[in-house]
Amino acid sequence: MSEAARLVAELRNYIADERVLRAIETVPREAFVPDELRPHAYDNTALGISCGQTISQPLVVGRMSELLELRPDDRVLDVGTGSGYHAAILATLAAHVWSIERHADLSRIAGEALARAGIENVTLAVGDGSRGLPEEAPFDAINVAAAGDRAGLDALEAQLADGGRLVAPVTGRRQRLTVARREGRHVRWRSLEEVRFVPLVRDRG
């Protein structure tokens, strides 16, 4: 059994969506981690990358991807590119992903990793992810890989298509994975399990 298959066998206890599990098995996570950490690429744990950031734990990536309920023709916004791994998983499940990162160096490195992994349907952008990409909206799904309060997600919520889903870690008394779904003019929010993400940093002004 390959390392990727062993990881998927572990994740199957927590993730039911077989398309998500196949994506995790197919996307080469080793392409997205620093050379010295490649022996740990298929450990179910977060790993350090550049700029003090991490490549998220595969369980968390899988769980967020599952909650987005992605369809093959979906247009997806990914906030917080980081290593590019989460964008690669999303791109395997959807038609196209726009991924925004505030650190230009991280975005460049992620682009190189996506190319190594053979992922071609991701467009990278550098900027304030909390503002989204209004020029490309609306999105069928929005993935937010950094934590903030509900009010800080207003701009992203506004960029959801009708029926669109947003998944983000939301701060409060505890940080919880939260799902939003647009139903016409209204957005319904639902809080789930506790998680731990770095803060979503917004530009001032």
**Beta-strand fraction estimate:** 25-35%
> Main β-sheet: number of strands, strand sense, barrel status?
7 strands, mixed
The number of helical runs is 6
The secondary structure category is: alpha/beta
Helicity, as a percent range: 25-40%
Radius of gyration (CA) equals: 16 Å
Q: Which topology does CATH recognise? A: Rossmann fold
Mean pLDDT: 93
Question: Can you name the CATH architecture?
Answer: 3-Layer(aba) Sandwich
List segments where confidence is low: pLDDT < 50 over at least 5 consecutive residues.
none
- Give the number of DSSP strands: 9
The domain tally reads 1
Report how far the terminal alpha carbons are from each other: 52 Å
CATH homologous superfamily caption = Vaccinia Virus protein VP39
| Biggest sheet: strand arrangement | 5-4-3-6-7-8-9
Coarse shape: globular
Helix-strand pattern: HHEEHEHEHEEHEEE
What is the CATH domain class?
A: Alpha Beta
Layout of SSEs?
Elements: H1 3-11, H2 18-26, E1 47-48, E2 54-55, H3 58-67, E3 75-79, H4 85-93, E4 96-101, H5 104-116, E5 122-126, E6 139-144, H6 154-157, E7 160-170, E8 176-183, E9 186-194
Parallel strand pairs: 3-4, 3-6, 4-5, 6-7
Antiparallel strand pairs: 1-2, 7-8, 8-9
Helix pairs in contact: 1-2, 2-4
Q: Briefly, what is this?
A:
The protein contains six helices and nine strands. By secondary structure, the chain is of the alpha/beta class. It has a single domain (3-194), classed as Vaccinia Virus protein VP39 (Rossmann fold).
Description:
It is built from 6 helices and 9 strands. By secondary structure, it is α/β, with parallel strands linked by helices. A 7-stranded mixed sheet has the order 5-4-3-6-7-8-9, with helices on one face. Strands 1-2 form a two-stranded antiparallel sheet. The longest helix is centred in the middle third of the chain and has 13 residues, at 104-116.
